[in-house]
């Protein structure tokens, strides 16, 4: 009797098992490189835009949503409805600017309707200010209502820079993809509520500010307020847009710094440091591109705010001797809002630049290198050198850096101009005093003119009386 020993003939072929792994496992290399472990993430609340892992624990690296655009979407939508940002999105994550697109045609129609409306009011001689009394300070206040129309120039400037803004948004998509490949999850950016609040609150506050300013300073019709409301919303929504861009840079820099610090606490490859360095270089480039893409728009906005604040404060100071009146409420409101907006523009850019470069350098300098091997120490030193050689300041096209020093310089220049204007006002003689002198001179001249005929008549009478007496004696 023979016994069956092998089952080779019984199962000639290998059955395929679905949804299983291969039994053979390769041996790990004995010379394991430093840091071969994925860094642990700091626990945080799951974002609504987080990408769900697949069943086989693999992560799909395809971007289904442009996270940066989706978080700032309310403000972008408002800018597009106002005809300021003719951005075209052919698909998710693809932003572009086409001069023949529907968005551009719509923006041109809105803008030319606004220009035509302002021209119509001017041609029909709808003069908002007819209350000037001839004083120099009153003339300066009149100019404010012409200066309020200057933001109309921002719209075509924004059209010109829309292509560069689209390039920055596409750069953010690339940053998201690189971050997800490195960390294994989507970028945890939660700015949607802030963006929605800005898109709702700014139009309400801007409309209220314009109404208060015009009611307290001049008498006007409801038709005349429309262009001023539109341009006021335009000015302050651009400030909200700038705030969200800078806040995005700050949050991403903090997330990247925390992830890098967590990665260095574990044993893993030195190549991880190189990957984080490449990701930081992307973020640094996005910081510079943000300033370049909005160069001419915010250069004009800063100069416009400087002019508005100077004229408004001068209007307040020029009549401070007469007390705070109803007309001064609009001037005070305009000056306060302008100063706050200019401060936030400069402060947010300063804060973003500091987070991208200075705070990241602090993380690198605090790294303990003694327990690392030579390769890891070299990578960290190269990372630190990269942060020193790559500028991360937000510069408006190289004209000037947007930071707190800019705000300080503008305030110093503003004080200089205010002193000059006040000195010029003091040097001009008072109109009332001049008028009184003119009336006194006129009265004296009239008196002289009235007395001269009487004197002549008296003289002629004396002569005739003398001649008559002489004739009687003869």
UniProtKB/TrEMBL annotation:
Family annotation (InterPro entries): 7TM_chemorcpt
Pfam families cross-referenced by the UniProt entry: 7tm_7
GO biological process, one term: sensory perception of taste
Subcellular location: Cell membrane
CC terms in the record's Gene Ontology section: axon; dendrite; neuronal cell body; plasma membrane
Keyword Oxidoreductase: no
Superkingdom to which the source organism belongs: Eukaryota
Entry similarity comment: Belongs to the insect chemoreceptor superfamily. Gustatory receptor (GR) family.
Designated name of the protein: Gustatory receptor
Record organism: Parnassius mnemosyne
Source taxonomy: Eukaryota, Metazoa, Ecdysozoa, Arthropoda, Hexapoda
